[in-house]
Amino acid sequence: MAEPIRVVVTGAAGQIAYSLLYQIASGAVFGPNQPVYLHLLDIAPMMGVLEGVVMELADCALPLLAGVLPTAKPEEAFKDVVAAFLVGAMPRKEGMERKDLLAANVRIFKEQGQALDKVARKDVKVLVVGNPANTNALICSKYAPSIPKENFTAMTRLDQNRAQSQLAAKIGVPVQNVKNVIIWGNHSSTQFPDASNAVVNVGGAEKSVPAAINDDAYLKSAFVNTVQKRGAAVIAARKMSSALSAAKAASDHMRDWFLGSGDRWVSMGVVSDGSYGTPRDVVFSFPVTTANGKWKIVQGLTISDFARQMLDNTGKELSEEKQEALDVCKD
Ligand code: NAX
Q1: Does 270 map to a domain?
Q2: Which of 30, 76, 179, 318 could form a Cys-Cys staple with 34, CB 3.0–4.6 A?
Q3: Each residue of 279-315: pLDDT tens digit?
Q4: Which residue out of 76, 131, 161 has the highest number of ligand 1 atoms within 8 Å of its CB and is therefore the one to mutate?
Q5: Of 60-64, 284-288, 314-318, 327-331, minimum mean pLDDT range
C-alpha cells in the first residue's frame, strides 16, 4: 500500500461534498491502492454539521481512508495537500445581484489562494467547483504565486458529461460510446457545448457525431440550450442544485488529471494562453488531454463562424468577470 496523500475538500458540510467525500475515500479518484487523508474545510457555524459527516465517514468503514481532519481554518485545511477540491462558496441569496455574489466569492478565493500559497505542496492540483468557478480559480491562482498557474483549474466537466449524455440519448447508444464533445469558455449560460468534433461508436464503427445525428439545427440550438440550461432544470425539479452529478464530475476531473485521460479529450477550465483567439489570462474551458499529471490543450481544430461567435461571446463575459473580480480584490 502507498503512503496516504492529503486531500482537501472545502464546503465539506454542503451537498456536493456529501457525495464527493465518499467517492474520494472509496478510491474512485486516486485509484484503489492509494490511501487518502481527508481535510475537511467549512465555516465555523457549520462545524456541528461537519461533525456528523465525519461520523458517517467513519461508519462507512472504508479501507482507504487513513484519517479525517475537520476544520474551519484554511491554513490547517491546506497544509501539505496534493489535491484541493474547492467546492465551498457563498450561495446566492434572495435579492442578491450577480455582482454581489461575485464580490463575496472572490474574497473567499483570494483568502484561500493566500493560504494555499503558504502551506500547500507546490505541486498541489486545485479544482474550483464553487461559482463563479472560472473567475474564482483565476483569483485563487493570482494569490498563490508560488504555485504554477497550470495547477489551478475550474470545473466544466459536469457540462461535458451532460452534453455527452444528451448526444448518446439522441443517437441511441451507451454514453461511453460518445467522446470528444467540448465545452468552451465559462461555466455559465454563455458556455459553448460543441459536438462538431465529437465521435460516436455505432455498432463497432466510428462515425462523426454531426454525421450520425444529421441535424445541424439541433446541434446549434436545442442541444446547446439544453446543456446550458440543465442546471436550472435540475433546480426546478429538485428544488436544490445538482449535487450527485456535480460530485461525479469533480471526481472525473481530478481522476483524469492525476491518472490520465487516455484517448479521450476532456474539458477543463485552465488559464488561457490565447489558444483559438481566446482572451489570455482568463480561466477558459478548453478541450485538453492529460498525461503524467499535466494537461495540454488540443490544438489544430477548425473553428466555424458559428463557433467563433460563441467563443467570442463567452470570452467577453470572462474578461468582464475578471475585471470586476480584480476591482473587488483592490479593496
Ligand atoms: P451548499 O450550499 O450545499 O454547500 C456549500 C458549503 O460551502 C456550505 O457548507 C458552506 O458553509 C460552505 N462554505 C461557504 N463559505 C465557505 C468558505 N469560505 N470556506 C469553506 N466553506 C465555505 O452548496 P453545494 O450545492 O455543495 O454547491 C457548492 C458550490 O458549487 C456552489 O457555489 C455552486 O454554485 C457550485 N456548483 C458548481 C458547478 C460546476 O459545474 N462548476 C455545478 C454544481 C454547483 O452548482
Answers
A1: yes
A2: 30
A3: 999 999 999 999 999 999 999 999 999 999 999 999 9
A4: 131
A5: 327-331
* 331 found inside a domain: no
Domain span at residue 173 reads 157-320
* Pair (168, 51) in one structural domain: no
131 is in an annotated binding site: yes
| Section 247-262 average pLDDT | 98
Same domain as 142, residue 238: no
Q: Domain tally for the chain?
A: 2
Say if residue 173 is in the same domain as residue 286.
yes
Q: Is the CB of 248 under 6 A from ligand 1?
A: no
Inter-CA distances, 71 with 37, 106, 318, Å: 13, 21, 32
Residue-level pLDDT at 234: 94
- Residue 89 Cβ inside 6 Å of ligand 1? The answer reads yes
* Ligand 1 pocket residue status of 246, Cβ below 6 Å: yes
Residues 106 and 133 in one domain: yes
What pLDDT, on the 0 to 100 scale, is given for residue 98?
75
Residue whose CA is closest, atom 10 of ligand 1? Answer: 11
53 Cβ inside 6 Å of ligand 1:
no
pLDDT confidence band for 331 (50 / 70 / 90): confident
Q: Is 39 a catalytic residue?
A: no
Active-site residue, from 142, 187, 230, 255:
187
pTM equals 0.98
12 and 100 assigned to the same domain: yes
Same-domain pairing of 199 and 130: no
Average pLDDT of the residues of the chain: 96
The rounded percent of the chain whose pLDDT value lies above 90 is: 95
